[in-house]
Recover the amino acids of this structure.
């Protein structure tokens, strides 16, 4: 039987217990044996000049594939070096977990986005290069965390003197604040889209108290999104868009270790069934 590891940190495994059970159940239905592995139990590196992975400090028979649910591109890369199929790949993990790298890559496709500047957090300039207000984000932030709405010189000075974020992006706010669109993707297929809105925060994230509703993409929106999909080799991701004042989609980011709480809340789509089908197809192609 084809075997796989489902890798979570201990903390995230506790918080996502039902999601993990769902993952394992869907894999079993398609004759894949999926085992939960805690990241804290794994050691990766080089021993005797060869790439290695140890489980609880011991050598172990490696599975055919891994689904990595931690943000650690180097782990994905090391597992690939050992011959595993990894979902998402190390390339996706490296690009999509760094907002600046993502913007640079998507820019090549001519996808509309808001004006964005990259800055090193250890040498912020005295005066910001964008007019107030603007949004400041840690390039490695996820789920709406480490995102700041900067409205004044005082806030800018407080941030640059007190925060220890190494690399940030600054973006103008010429969009509909408190509203965004998440598009769920498996492989080359758009699975569904969810409009997220908040009346109390400039961020629309569902887990920050926003609301969610199923969104029907029009043909031009699908074409735009498919252009991004065709450029990458995704496993399962969420592609997020801001909403312009005329309703146009403006690229925001790609979520590598994406959850599907909002999609499940507003639809009956079984995205994990589709994801496991995608993985099984990829594995069958390699045999």
């Amino acid at each position: 039987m084809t075997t796989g590891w489902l890798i979570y940190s201990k903390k995230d495994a506790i918080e996502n217990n039902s999601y993990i059970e769902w993952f394992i159940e869907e894999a079993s239905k398609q004759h894949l044996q999926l085992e939960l592995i805690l990241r804290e139990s794994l050691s990766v590196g080089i021993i005797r000049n060869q790439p290695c992975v140890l489980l609880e400090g011991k050598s172990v028979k490696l599975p055919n594939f891994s689904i990595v649910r931690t943000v650690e591109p180097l782990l994905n890369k090391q597992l690939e070096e050992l011959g595993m199929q990894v979902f998402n790949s190390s390339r996706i993990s490296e690009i999509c977990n760094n907002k600046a790298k993502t913007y640079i890559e998507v820019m090549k496709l001519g996808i509309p986005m808001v004006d964005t500047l990259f800055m090193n957090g250890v040498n912020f300039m005295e005066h910001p290069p964008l007019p107030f207000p603007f949004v400041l984000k840690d390039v490695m932030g996820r789920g709406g965390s480490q995102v700041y709405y900067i409205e004044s010189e005082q806030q800018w000075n407080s941030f640059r003197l007190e925060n220890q974020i190494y690399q940030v992006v600054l973006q103008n706010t010429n969009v509909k604040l408190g509203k965004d669109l998440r598009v769920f993707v498996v492989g080359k297929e758009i699975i569904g889209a969810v409009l997220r809105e908040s009346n109390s925060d400039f961020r629309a994230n569902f887990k920050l108290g926003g609301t969610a509703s199923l969104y029907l993409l029009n043909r031009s929106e699908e074409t735009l999104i498919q252009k991004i999909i065709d450029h990458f080799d995704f496993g399962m991701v969420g592609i997020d868009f801001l909403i312009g004042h005329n309703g146009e989609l403006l690229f925001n980011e790609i979520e590598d270790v994406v959850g599907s709480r909002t999609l499940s809340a507003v639809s009956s789509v079984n995205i994990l069934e589709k994801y496991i089908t995608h993985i099984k197809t990829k594995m069958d192609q390699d045999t």
Observations:
- The longest strand covers residues 189-197.
- The chain has a mean pLDDT of 93.
- The longest helix spans residues 271-285.
